[in-house]
Amino acid sequence: MKTRVITGILWGAGFLLVVYLGGIWYTALVFFLATLAYYELIRMNHIRLMDWHGLTGLVFLWLLLFPNLVWEGNMLRGDAVFLFVLLLLFITVASKNRVEYQHIAYLLFSSFYLGFGFHFMNETRIVNGLAITLAIVFSTWATDTGAYFVGKARGKTKLWPAISPNKTIEGSLGGVFLAVVTMILFSFITDSLTISQALLIGLVISVSGQIGDLMESAIKRTLNVKDSGSILPGHGGVLDRLDSLIVVFPVLHLLQLL
Amino acid sequence: MKTRVITGILWGAGFLLVVYLGGIWYTALVFFLATLAYYELIRMNHIRLMDWHGLTGLVFLWLLLFPNLVWEGNMLRGDAVFLFVLLLLFITVASKNRVEYQHIAYLLFSSFYLGFGFHFMNETRIVNGLAITLAIVFSTWATDTGAYFVGKARGKTKLWPAISPNKTIEGSLGGVFLAVVTMILFSFITDSLTISQALLIGLVISVSGQIGDLMESAIKRTLNVKDSGSILPGHGGVLDRLDSLIVVFPVLHLLQLL
């Protein structure tokens, strides 16, 4: 527990510092974390990074990560997807089927899952600025905190035991509550959101964050893995730590709430 | 053999008739064939079409199939991809992991593979017209024919035995030869291509067509299936019959040869 708290604080503080710095620092961090998460995700399915298909997936992930302003008038992302699909299919042939169709499908999906997630994590900081990015991060963390303490104190009814046996409905609601409170506090401080906007955004953050958490649990359960990695003592891997945020940011953009 | 020849001629004639008709007829045929191919491809991996994830993949495939002119100013394909990825991840959670990460990855990849292939099959007819579409189809079929007869007569050196044990290098070169001859003939008849253009296009068609064939063989070998389906007696499934064309058309567009 002590390791867990210390690592958590150090990780959180380091992350926030780079969010604050923004610019190239934050973009570089996003690329770095996405690469680690990619490594964790493919290793869970016994795909090696240092292999033709592992590296091809990584390059595609990086293409997705580039900020939108780099892409404009540069190259169609559609063509990139298409080239990626063809290259991967070609690798199955060139490798004489050592690389199977299911492997390349896993890579494509993983690149998209992480690509969208981390891309919008970066895009929000660039386009929407520091304040709202921090508010989203805090609100997501508030979800975890609220769910943990309320679940511990009052948790009775299992939320989704097939995938995550320890989560309870009470905890989940506690998470939603604390996330919404955080977002409303933010709206008071900055005056940039109305209360109803803050309420809606807080709700979306908390619900999509919890679903993101369940999604990652589902993946790990399928692959019989407990933690995605071990880079953060007591917290598992990078993916375990960011599973909520990489769903929260894209969903907020998709729903055009930002 | 007799069944095979008769089915082959009927299928070929029917296909060419609809290519000739063009417009809504050809687009409808493309949607129909793509749907059959999708059904074959997911069934090979024991995914049911009439299931949430099977249907979600199909809807996404159809989105990719729509001609470019329908999309313009309508909806970003990027957003569609993204929504599809999220929906599929959500289905893993909602199904309590009966639908696994590897299944949804398989669906995403399959939708892209068929989506791009059939989309460009349609797009070529719309944008580039009847003559060149027919030339490409004939040149692809010429590849098969040349490979079959030259391989039968002079085939000695195995081409890629790990994936397709009966193919020979001699046959493959015979396929390239007949495809290029077909394209050059076309350039004489229509006067729309220079000889060197015809030579290059014929070469690209034949090589990418043969690779497309190997790709589909690789998929089937991975999944321990002999034919993708049995809709065409003696010829296997729709995917077996169109595996070359759904790679040829996109590659020609990607290389900006059309």
TrEMBL record, chains A, B:
<protein>
    <recommendedName>
        <fullName>Phosphatidate cytidylyltransferase</fullName>
        <ecNumber>2.7.7.41</ecNumber>
    </recommendedName>
</protein>
<keyword id="KW-0443">Lipid metabolism</keyword>
<keyword id="KW-1208">Phospholipid metabolism</keyword>
<keyword id="KW-0808">Transferase</keyword>
<keyword id="KW-0444">Lipid biosynthesis</keyword>
<keyword id="KW-0548">Nucleotidyltransferase</keyword>
<dbReference type="GO" id="GO:0004605">
    <property type="term" value="F:phosphatidate cytidylyltransferase activity"/>
</dbReference>
<keyword id="KW-0472">Membrane</keyword>
<dbReference type="GO" id="GO:0005886">
    <property type="term" value="C:plasma membrane"/>
</dbReference>
<keyword id="KW-0812">Transmembrane</keyword>
<feature type="transmembrane region" description="Helical">
    <location>
        <begin position="127"/>
        <end position="150"/>
    </location>
</feature>
<feature type="transmembrane region" description="Helical">
    <location>
        <begin position="51"/>
        <end position="70"/>
    </location>
</feature>
<feature type="transmembrane region" description="Helical">
    <location>
        <begin position="6"/>
        <end position="39"/>
    </location>
</feature>
<keyword id="KW-1133">Transmembrane helix</keyword>
<dbReference type="InterPro" id="IPR000374">
    <property type="entry name" value="PC_trans"/>
</dbReference>
<feature type="transmembrane region" description="Helical">
    <location>
        <begin position="76"/>
        <end position="95"/>
    </location>
</feature>
<feature type="transmembrane region" description="Helical">
    <location>
        <begin position="171"/>
        <end position="189"/>
    </location>
</feature>
<keyword id="KW-1003">Cell membrane</keyword>
<keyword id="KW-0594">Phospholipid biosynthesis</keyword>
<feature type="transmembrane region" description="Helical">
    <location>
        <begin position="104"/>
        <end position="121"/>
    </location>
</feature>
<dbReference type="Pfam" id="PF01148">
    <property type="entry name" value="CTP_transf_1"/>
</dbReference>
<comment type="pathway">
    <text>Lipid metabolism.</text>
</comment>
<dbReference type="GO" id="GO:0016024">
    <property type="term" value="P:CDP-diacylglycerol biosynthetic process"/>
</dbReference>
<comment type="pathway">
    <text>Phospholipid metabolism; CDP-diacylglycerol biosynthesis; CDP-diacylglycerol from sn-glycerol 3-phosphate: step 3/3.</text>
</comment>
<comment type="similarity">
    <text>Belongs to the CDS family.</text>
</comment>
